[in-house]
């Protein structure tokens, strides 16, 4: 397994809009494309409380490329993203990492 860690830093005050978009739009589209989430987190203590961190689980880099590309080019996603940003940009930046579990990780 490969895990992808993605951290979305939101524009000031826009975290609620991002959370709503994931809950009402993004997760349904991920189901459609077979994208598996492994957890979502907001920051309790840290540099910023305007962040959403989540993990995705992939069988391989090829699976990630195929499914992520299909999701990003889905007309339903493109339309929904534009609609949710009518009141302004939500995400300031995204940092992602592709991670491989160690031999002693509780997550495999």
UniProtKB/TrEMBL annotation:
Domain of life: Bacteria
Pfam families xref list: NIPSNAP
SUPFAM superfamilies reported for this sequence: Dimeric alpha+beta barrel
Residue ranges occupied by any NIPSNAP domain in the UniProt entry: 3-105
Coiled coil (UniProt feature): none
Protein name: NIPSNAP family protein
